[in-house]
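Lecture 7 notes: from sequence to structure.
We start with the chain below.
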Amino acid sequence: MKFIHPDFLLSSRSAQILYHEYAESLPIIDYHCHLPPAEIAEDRRWTDIADAWLGADHYKWRVMRSDGISEKFITGNATGREKFQKFAEAMPHALRNPMYHWCHLELARYFGIDDLLLSGDTAQTIWDRAKAVCETPGFSARGLMKASHVETVCTTDDPVDSLSFHEAIAKDDSFHVRVLPAWRPDRGFAIGNPSAWNEWVDRLAAAANQTIASFDDFIEALQKRHDFFAAHNCRLSDYGLNAVLAQPCTDSEMAAIFEKARSGKTPTPDEEARFRSRLLILCGEMDARADWTWQLHFNVIRNNSTRLFQIYGPDAGADAIGDWNVAAPLAKILDTLDRQDLLPRTILYSLNPRDNELVMSLAGCFQRAPVPGKIQMGSGWWFNDQMDGMKRQLETVSQLGLLYRFVGMLTDSRSFLSYTRHEYFRRILCQLLGDEIDRGLLPNDLPLVGALVRAVCHDNAANYFGFHD
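Predicted structure tokens for the same chain:
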């Protein structure tokens, strides 16, 4: 039997029915990703599989480094063919690493290669067959989205972005995938580097068409851009917090810290923590008034390798799971907004799986009508978007909340080939539920359980985010 076959990961008849009859054909809502809107607007093409696969994929880079491959063949100046060969040689050593499943799913779905396993011996054949596919008309950014049955995508966008590519996509009647911006104001929080921060604040001032001389000006400019994003159908915001902070900070303290950073002086760590804490609350209030969903990503420690940072810069594959305390500050953030009746629909993602039960138990404290599952524990993220991480996330949501209300999977990816993550998630979900039907832990009522599958894989996200409008 082929490795990637119709019942891949589905070991029971119940699981197979749930997947093939309820999940498989549903369109994809990818509500958090890092696809460049320019590449969608311009319908980017790739010359070969190395161009499509290896250019900015730190998941693959980490596999190659773990296999002892020289950086020349990872982020260095080796040719695409040479880099692909080295990656192919590492693949047999990646058994049980999630990359093994992901890569073979992508080979099957996008290149039609399901009769070979990737290895050094098969690299040339797969390279040639994949290159022929890359040259076909449908192998483009838009073509891959259509082939993956994508319905809606939310990109990740800086408040100073003009959204011109989103405008171009929206005006193109020939392309029916909805591509929406998502607000990501992380650079506005980064006062620890006042030089870079001031450069960004100047860009914010230009985008908002005003001067920014005070903290009040800063918030006014952010609100203008927030309104601009809302006018372009933005429905979600996203915040990369690293640590969750909830330090008290008065208006006068915020003004003083802002003025210090605006003058080019570096705030103290305590001042930075208080500034970031208060700004997050103010952004949450903006999101609530706009009826957006905000997403909080936390417990990640970035750019750990100075060596790799000096070679490549950020996003080199040298980030890791963080271990800051979460419970008290996160509870304070949620409660502060809830007391004002300004707590947005909320999705919480911790990169540290030890936080799963903590996060879901806190979510239960702030659920509120009329939104089912208003406070969500996000899908397995980054180091947790593999089989074990997805299963643990599903177990936590099921035991401490309502799986039926979960808004489902996302790619969190820069690659147009990552939509197989949704297929992977759907197969894992159906296997879990089908197994429990067979063990008598769930009713042997496939329409009942199938309705849950359909809700989690598509319908909940459409309703929760208002994408059905």
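Points to note: The beta strands are 28-30, 150-154, 178-180, 182-183, 236-242, 293-298, 300-301, 320-321, 345-350, 375-377. The radius of gyration is 23 Å.
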